[in-house]
Write a structure and sequence with these properties.
This protein has 425 residues and is an all-alpha fold. It is built from 20 helices and no strands. Helix 6 packs across helix 7 and helix 6 crosses helix 17. It is globular and about 65 Å long.
Length: 425
């Protein structure tokens, strides 16, 4: 059993890391707020987003594996430069906002167990993430990223020590959406979609598949039989990798909502304004150590995600400008790439000194991600379906249909929320 687990865990790659990175501090705050405000009625959103996440991330992975280039480079080849520049700019802005909010939540969570000044902690968090990215190799870094994902299991364990969870009601509300046409429900849906189908995950997935498959090089002009066989194996393994990562991500999200509904919503805490409030959802499992376990979870997912946020934007910009990029390179081999990581992190860090509540900033960043996602999704579905880009490895017809449905969903949900807000539903 131990050997099977070790082999299975070893085969997991960018897809699993991407899924775990999806449950970042922004995701944890959004899911906790969803459960606290809507109770069990929020649970259906975790199940609803799964097929769309799988389809979108598999398209991104397929593009990276087949072309040997990230999304930015492929967009540059197929779309007008001004359009790609706009898309990459939106990505950079959304990532930087999300990154800053994640750093703030990491510092706020750390304060629960280490009462140091917030400015000192948030600066330390930024420095740690930069050192990890710049001075460790991708292979080493990816190995530790996978182990950091285990911190998320704390949220699953809580559910099995809580006595008063109404399991039948929870299962019913998971499969039967209710209270859909209410502005609060629609706002939570937009936030959940923004933190699950997030722009930074698109670029990270594609670029890391390139790193995983081809290393510092890129796809050769002509594939030999052995290289083609290697690519086909990766395409096969990638599907299981992506599905595992996305399902794992949403299972964790479901349990966070479930526990928040049981412990916070039932107690009347419907608005989460502090890390301490969010930590109380873990109290039934670890009692007075709830703050400590919560801090570990936030730090683990934050250290996992902040580098993903800064690196994905750096990948996109460097691919657009056709300059060296990649975590497999030393800092002096890709100075602009690592420079962009530093700039993005510092801008996000600066956002923590404007007085915005860290928890609310995380939820707002999820909503911003949802607003930025639609134009990027259009480009991804087009590329994955384009024979000039993908040759005979284009996505299947079913995948294309689900891809366009994801575009409609990510476009329609914010519009419906805006309309519901305007009408005062």
């Amino acid at each position: 059993m131990r050997d099977w687990f070790r082999r299975t865990f070893k085969t997991l790659g960018p897809g699993f890391i991407t899924g775990a990175a999806d449950d970042d501090p922004s995701g944890i705050a959004t899911y906790t707020q969803a459960g606290a405000s809507l109770g069990y009625h929020a649970l259906w959103t975790a199940l609803f987003s799964v097929p769309f996440m799988i389809v979108v991330q598999e398209m991104c992975a397929r593009i990276g594996i087949v072309t040997g280039r990230g999304l930015g480079a492929n967009m540059r080849r197929r779309f007008p430069y001004a359009v790609v520049l706009l898309l990459v700019s939106l990505l950079f802005a959304a990532n930087t906002l999300n990154l800053g909010a994640d750093l703030g939540m990491m510092a706020a969570a750390t304060q629960l167990v280490l009462p140091l000044p917030f400015p000192l902690l948030v600066v330390c968090m930024a420095l740690v993430t930069l050192i990890l990215q710049i001075f460790t190799t991708y292979r080493t870094y990816a190995k530790y990223l996978k182990w950091l994902t285990l911190s998320l299991f704390a949220y699953i364990l809580v559910a099995f020590v809580v006595d008063d969870i109404q399991w039948w009601t929870a299962l019913r509300d998971t499969f039967l959406p209710s209270n859909f046409f209410q502005k609060e429900t629609l706002m939570i849906l937009v936030a959940v979609l923004g933190t699950t189908i997030s722009p930074y995950l698109f670029f990270w997935q594609a670029s890391e598949e390139v790193e995983e498959q081809w290393g510092e090089g890129r796809v050769p002009t002509k594939l030999t039989p052995s290289l083609r066989a290697r690519m086909m194996r990766r395409l096969h393994d990638m599907r299981a990798d992506v599905c595992t990562g996305m399902v794992f991500s949403n299972v964790v999200a479901w349990f966070i909502m479930l526990v928040a509904a049981s412990e916070l919503h039932r107690a009347g805490s419907t608005t989460i304004l502090s890390a301490d409030q969010a930590a109380q959802a873990l109290a039934p499992l670890v009692g007075r150590f709830a703050s400590f376990v919560f801090a570990l979870g936030i730090l683990g997912t934050g250290l996992l995600t902040v580098p993903v946020l800064s690196a994905s934007a750096a990948y996109a910009i460097c691919e657009l400008l056709d300059i060296p990029e990649g975590l497999s390179k030393k800092w002096y081999q890709a100075q602009a790439f690592y420079g962009l990581i530093v700039v993005s992190t510092l801008i996000g860090l600066a956002g923590n000194f404007v007085g915005v509540n860290p928890v609310r900033a995380l939820i707002y960043s999820s909503i911003v991600n949802a607003l930025v996602a639609p134009p990027l999704l259009i480009a991804i579905v087009y590329l994955a379906s384009d024979k000039k880009t993908m040759g005979k490895y284009v996505s299947s017809r079913g995948m294309q249909v689900f891809g366009w449905l994801a575009v409609l969903l990510m476009t329609g949900a914010p519009m419906l929320w805006a309309y519901a807000t305007w009408r005062g539903w």
